[in-house]
Amino acid sequence: DAKTTQPPSMDCAEGRAANLPCNHSTISGNEYVYWYRQIHSQGPQYIIHGLKNNETNEMASLIITEDRKSSTLILPHATLRDTAVYYCIVRAKAAGNKLTFGGGTRVLVKP
Amino acid sequence: KAGVTQTPRYLIKTRGQQVTLSCSPISGHRSVSWYQQTPGQGLQFLFEYFSETQRNKGNFPGRFSGRQFSNSRSEMNVSTLELGDSALYLCASTPQGSNSGNTIYFGEGSWLTVV
Predict the structure, then answer these.
(1) Distance between CA B109 and CA B99 in Å, rounded?
(2) B46, B95 contact by CB (below 8 A)
(3) How far apart are CA B28 and CA A80, in angstroms?
(4) How far apart, in whole angstroms, are the C-alpha atoms of residue A40 and residue A42?
(5) What is the dihedral of CA B58, B9, B106, A9, to 10 degrees?
(6) Average pLDDT for residues B36-65, to the nearest whole number?
(7) For A75, which of A18, A47, A103, B14 could close a Cys bridge (C-beta 3.0–4.6 Å)?
(8) Which residue, B97, B53, B56, is CA-closest to A100?
(9) Are residues A97 and B107, on separate chains, in Cβ contact within 8 Å?
(10) Which of A34, A93, A101 sits opposite B43 (nearest CB)?
């Protein structure tokens, strides 16, 4: 799987948008970008995924650059409950259903 | 629709014992994967089962094993427990096949403490 690079931590103000960057410069054409988050002591929660186009759901938006070498997860109005570790994962077709987790970004939403 | 269900949620075992953890995937999901999460190593893939067959395996010793039943429920077993096996064990499921566009959903995990 392509390696991803995320900042280890970031703070965000409650009510403001949180923009979480992820670099995946070695991504291949058929690899998806997935985002999960993990709130302390819970299992990872699926947020969103995309291949080439930008995606939006009820939780977040995913912006993928045209060259696909990086992406940004946007939480439009961060709440205190969004405090978690966010993982950006590139999922290769050859890897099947195996996800390779990196260190993620520890996001702290402050009031 | 119920999510991925793992039992037990918490357990304490003694070194040298063995443990069995259970996972019920989301209804209709046929692929089940297991992960180990520790503070030092993070989230690591253990193995994946599909149609009762192990399809993928991570880099763990043979003490870690699993199986899947015809109803897609899965169990994992750790024998001869060591202190370092203390971890959160996570189960994940996905509908079928290995299409990288299929979303993988996780359960809440089983917390194992080895004393």
Answers:
(1) 24
(2) no
(3) 34
(4) 6
(5) -90
(6) 93
(7) A18
(8) B56
(9) no
(10) A101
The reported pLDDT for the residue numbered B27 is 93
**pLDDT for residue B99:** 66
What does the alpha-carbon distance between residue A59 and residue A74 come to, in Å, rounded to a whole number?
Answer: 9
From CA B57, how far away is CA A87, in angstroms rounded?
22
Q: Closest to A98 (Cβ–Cβ): which among B45, B103, B107?
A: B45
> What Rg value do the Cα atoms of chain A yield, rounded?
13
Residues B19, B87 contacting (CB under 8 angstroms)? no
- Amino acid symbol at B65: S
Q: Are B48 and B31 in contact (CB under 8 A)?
A: yes
Q: For A66-83, what is the mean pLDDT?
A: 96
Which residue, among A10, A1, A2, has the nearest Cα to A70 in the 3D structure?
A: A2
Interface contact A45-B106, CB threshold 8 A: yes
Residue pair A85/A69 in contact (Cβ under 8 Å)? The answer is no
Nearest to B99 by CA among B39, B4, B29: B29
Question: Residue B39: pLDDT above 90?
Answer: no
SS3 A24: coil
